[in-house]
Sequence to fold (106 residues):
Amino acid sequence: MLDISVFGRYTYLVTELVWGTVAALLLRRANALRKAAVTILALYPIAYVWDRYTLAVGVFDIKLRTGIDVAGIPLEEHLFMAVVPGLVVGIHETIFGDGTESSSSA
Fold:
């Protein structure tokens, strides 16, 4: 597997930016930016509480990160909470969507 730790403390950030770009391209191609935004906004509070808790109890430790915390969690985790649902919606809409976004969906 490719070792991307050469980015040092920016490794996690670079990873999120790469996959976030993939998600954005898929969402744009599938014309699903609004669907993704609504989904991300709906999931974000749950993901934030979950993330804050798991970090506080030591479920995981993020070593290759910038060290910048926003609202008690790493900056990269905030990006992760947008990238993952964005990628899921982007893949789903690319496979199953018809390319038209209904205005009633947002």
Summary: Residues 33-57 form the longest helix (25 residues). The beta strands are 69-70, 73-74. The CA atoms of residues 30 and 98 lie 8 Å apart. The longest strand covers residues 69-70.
